[in-house]
Amino acid sequence: MRTIEAMIAGRDAPLAPGCNSLGRSMLELRSHQCRFPLRGSGAAMRFCAVEVEVGAWMPGLSLGSYCSFHRDFLRGQPSVAEERVAEDRSEAA
């Protein structure tokens, strides 16, 4: 399974139904559009931009700025920080 860190780095990120395959830059995003990173880094980062359903837009909360497809995809996955702690523990053992 692809790691969340690899996904955030923009490698092999899954596209939501209705997502423009090129994505949008942060400056091109409107309110209530999915902030899931698809590819690139820094100013060149491209995001999903699928409209987030009314009532599901909760920026500041875990997964609160993602469309339902990406929210469901990430639900239950460890965060990058949790993944690194697990790797550090396995290397120390």
Topology:
Elements: H1 4-8, E1 37-39, E2 46-47, H2 68-74, H3 80-92
Antiparallel strand pairs: 1-2
Question: Could you characterize what this model shows?
Answer:
This protein has one domain (4-92). It has 93 residues and is mainly alpha-helical. 27% of the residues lie in helices and 5% in strands. The protein contains three helices and two strands, in the order H-E-E-H-H. The chain is globular and about 45 Å long.
Keywords:
93 residues, mainly alpha, 3 helices, 2 strands, globular
Number of strands: 2
Give, in order, the helices and strands. HEEHH
How large a portion of the residues is in β-strands, by DSSP E? 5-15%
Radius of gyration, in Å, reads 14 Å
Taking the alpha carbons of the first and last residues, their distance comes to 23 Å
Number of domains: 1
Uncertain regions spanning at least 5 consecutive residues = none
Strand arrangement, major sheet: 1-2
Mean pLDDT score: 80
Structural class of the secondary structure composition?
mainly alpha
How many helices? The count is: 3
